[in-house]
Amino acid sequence: MSRTAIATKKVTIRDVARLAEVSYGTVSRYLNGNEHVSTDAARRIAKAIEESHYTPNKAARSLAQQRTSTVAFIVQVESIATLLQASTAAAMAEANQTLGDAGYQMVTLIANSEDSTQRIAQLVQSDFADGYLLFSLSEDDSLINIFRTAHRPVVLSEASDRSTAVSYPAVDFANADGQCSITRYLLDQGKIRLAYVCGPGYSPSSSKRLHGFKQAMGAYFDDSHVYYADDWEIASGEMAAVEFQPMLHDLDGIVCANDNIAIGVINQLRRFGYRVPEDIAVTGFDDSPIATMMDPKLTTVRQDSWLHGRVMSQLLLRMLHGEVVDHQTVKLLPTEIVTRQSA
Amino acid sequence: MSRTAIATKKVTIRDVARLAEVSYGTVSRYLNGNEHVSTDAARRIAKAIEESHYTPNKAARSLAQQRTSTVAFIVQVESIATLLQASTAAAMAEANQTLGDAGYQMVTLIANSEDSTQRIAQLVQSDFADGYLLFSLSEDDSLINIFRTAHRPVVLSEASDRSTAVSYPAVDFANADGQCSITRYLLDQGKIRLAYVCGPGYSPSSSKRLHGFKQAMGAYFDDSHVYYADDWEIASGEMAAVEFQPMLHDLDGIVCANDNIAIGVINQLRRFGYRVPEDIAVTGFDDSPIATMMDPKLTTVRQDSWLHGRVMSQLLLRMLHGEVVDHQTVKLLPTEIVTRQSA
DNA sequence: CTGTTAGCGCGTTCAG
DNA sequence: CTGAACGCGCTAACAG
């Protein structure tokens, strides 16, 4: 006559029904918030659930209901370094929060190889999640195509400039605007002899930021003053500064594609004996944590990664609620110049 | 008479069977590597699968088979800042790789609130995954308890010093050893007047590292030379240095619980006019990316987070393969002193 | 308002 | 070696 039955085996909806002395159809209705359940039955069911420690089985439910109450956050990384970026983690955390508040469980998948892409494709095709956030920092298209057959909403983290066959709504930062603004900030100070360090070719943001720089420079733009880096790392910034060495003495500033690169540039500039910002001003992009850890602190373009994750989730939620959203939709998030010491 | 049927609706195992002209039981056997399928049937089935773009449905399969071929990587964070740590991301990436190679899809869940813990508990109780990696940097027990009823293997990222009711195999770093070694490194240089900045109380690593310091100091240990920080951040290091100010002039070194704190200490020390390491040596712990970005570069204790993720996964895989592992098992990963400039 | 029943897609006997 | 039938746990449509 033990009061609290020890959960020896899986307790199913049928056990609850038996305990509450109703049919299990009724229990199902109760569980799904159906109106047609007498308050009396409801009370007994609630009690039975409590006593039996019942938890509905996800797999069975999603099989019958064709929805899973989870959304997948798929991060596609060119190199694992991307995964380590604070911006990725921030967007991930905020998306998790936003979706969680709406009753969805977020699961994160990492696509960093042919194999993992394959596995993920399989999951997607069996409707593993109700919706997808594709957080990608690469131009690789292989992942985006796996959603064609799954008729589930998808939101991208980046506006692709190329017109691919398939496309989904996207939330991105105003990369070009940001780089354009900070360049103008330099120009307005009379620093007009500028060089640019561009990010890796595989990244759309790279070209957008370069575009912003070009726009601000107008006719003064000179491609020989652009260094094209292979990645987003500090070492690339150092290499850029080395490359620029011959022309350094008549340069007012160097605009960089991101903070890491800017740090590398500054490090190398100092080794060459230049002072920052007195001799040469340097700007970054991202406002990553290290921007304030450096000396001088970085003047940079701030983008709110938390906001990125939140807006992507909100858009996806609206789509999950049935709202139809044009696949060409692109939401551009504002950027902001943060003036510190390096420029 | 179209060759390649357009995947209009969900294609099930039945469709494949029809195409291959066998019963769907046979297809199921083929799919699960059962011997008893004639090579002729196998060939026809393979062809049918190819043509129909068939993908087995995860939910249905896991419902019938009671396994999901996925493992969950649950990261429990006291504050979101933890999630931003490079070490977490590294372990995550490597676990994803290791599990992926073994045919398991890793999904990451973030537990950062009462709600999210609740949702995750529900998933776990419906056998959402075949196994669990609990990556936790907090002492909160609420999560660890949700695995009691789920009879699935679990591996922890940290050895708890407290003897809780439930426990699982764990993989952790030799925190005490590491801190002990680097302290001895200072002592051996004749720097014997040392202070210590301890990490936050909620973290087990905190106390273990402090323990290592105590061990190295032996009788010379003096609790008044210990500052107890509230978190792992730079600001805490700065506060510690302020706290230590009165005794700074007769201190040879400050051993810190992690790199961030060490950086804060160094920053503040400089403001006070002390040179590092000439006047006071400072050591960190983690060998995080910023350790080499600072000037002076940090002398610190290196721990291989990739290895952490890999070993945790390997242990879990063995358990998934049926090997029984004592719940008290603790695998300690080696740490290593990295000598740079700050000490 | 409630019990009954037919699937959801697939694994697994169990005969044949 | 293969086909048929049942069950996994739950939802939803349909009678009552």
UniProtKB/TrEMBL annotation, chains A, B:
This is Transcription regulator CelR. CDD domains: HTH_LacI, PBP1_LacI_sugar_binding-like. Residues 11-65 form the HTH lacI-type domain. It comes from Bifidobacterium saguini DSM 23967. Pfam families: LacI, Peripla_BP_3. PANTHER family: HTH-TYPE TRANSCRIPTIONAL REGULATOR GALS, LACI-RELATED TRANSCRIPTIONAL REPRESSOR. Residues 9-48 form the HTH cro/C1-type domain. The keyword Nucleus does not apply.
